[in-house]
Amino acid sequence: MERSEFMKQSRSSLSEGFIKIGAEHKISPDVWEDLRVLLAFARAGTIARCAELLGVTQPTVIRKLAALESAMDRRLLVRNTRGSSLTQEGEKLVALADQMDRQVAMALNAATLDGAEVKGNVRVSCTDGLLSYWLAPRVRDFKTDYPGVSLELYSTNEPPDLERREVDVVCSFLDFQNANILSRRVGFVHLTPFVSKAFVNQHGMPDAEEDWSKYPIVDHIAYRDMVAGFADWMKLIAGSQTKYVSNNSTTYYHLVRSGMGIGFLGNYAALDPELMPILGNPAHTTTPLYVGALRVLHDDPSVRAVVDWVHQTFERAGDPWFRKTLFQPDSLEMEHMLPEREKLQAVMRGNEIAHSR
């Protein structure tokens, strides 16, 4: 189904859904339709874009918004030479309408589309490490459920601008929710000290309580930029005379894995049989992880499918690694995680082949 055709059907279906819910709450169909226009204005940002989104004229949008203000006996918009914006009362009404809109859209789309029918191209941005070692190995699972959705995967430590449509979905350490963007927390990333088997063969396993200044260290530029959250790590490595530094998480991971020094990695790195956490060390950073997209795109089945997949990948497939409390498994627990270890090993083999070329 073409996107434009889907949007037409969505507008029609949502109008019917709004009217049905409005009837249950004894709200007249005219007022309920005008409320839908207010919601579209909040999502679009301007009268002109609202009219384009709804497929009507600008005078129609202005007339319906004025009618809604009259029916509600409240001032919902502030109008000036630069355009129109929502009042506090308008924002409250939009929040309520948005919640019901999403419930209706989800119910209607679930009833009319299954995964095989969803089609589209979705651009996803995520931090380099999480994209390479957590999301990428699980893309096959997504394609099984949504064979008609193509993915463009971009790695970056600086989140793109969703409102400028640089990408469609962002997975980030920043909660970027605002009037135009919906985001939700999908888990927590835990960073702790790790060494590799190659490192231990050469230097021995560092004691959690000893001075680490005699050991080589692998540091990340991003850790230096976020000093407040990495104070324990910075204190541990302050005296080291040998440091290898990178601004790329994949490069960083391979430096640690090849035995170049002690590194600060996500606790899920324990799935890699070449890496070992330094247990008992107090250095530990916890960072919330969010996924989000423009509110107006949440009605697009392909975008919503990707958002839900990212959410499930971290919240369900990622359990227990991305739960709020730090998880550091023992050897018995690791035996039960063989499928996850095999996925990571497949990624590592692919990287090793690529690096050898």
Characterization of this structure:
47% of the residues lie in helices and 19% in strands. The protein has 14 helices and 11 strands. Strands 3, 4, 5, 6, 9, 10 and 11 form a 7-stranded mixed sheet that branches. A two-stranded antiparallel ribbon has the order 1-2. α1 crosses α2, α1 packs across α5 and α3 packs across α4. The protein is elongated, with a radius of gyration of 25 Å.
Task: Indicate the topology.
Layout: H1 3-24, H2 29-44, H3 47-54, H4 58-72, E1 77-80, E2 83-86, H5 88-112, E3 120-126, H6 128-135, H7 139-145, E4 149-155, E5 169-172, E6 181-196, H8 197-203, E7 217-220, H9 221-225, H10 231-237, E8 243-246, H11 249-257, E9 263-266, E10 275-277, E11 285-294, H12 301-315, H13 331-335, H14 338-356
CATH H-level homologous superfamily name of the largest domain: Winged helix-like DNA-binding domain superfamily/Winged helix DNA-binding domain
Number of strands: 11
Mean of residue pLDDT values: 80
How many structural domains are formed by the residues?
3
Shape call = elongated
The CATH architecture of the largest domain is: Orthogonal Bundle
Please indicate the percent range of residues in DSSP E strands (runs of 2 or more): 15-25%
- Return the CATH topology of the largest domain: Arc Repressor Mutant, subunit A
Counting DSSP H or I runs of 4 or more residues, the number of helices is 14
Give a short account of the largest sheet: 7 strands, mixed
Radius of gyration: 25 Å
Helix/strand order = HHHHEEHEHHEEEHEHHEHEEEHHH
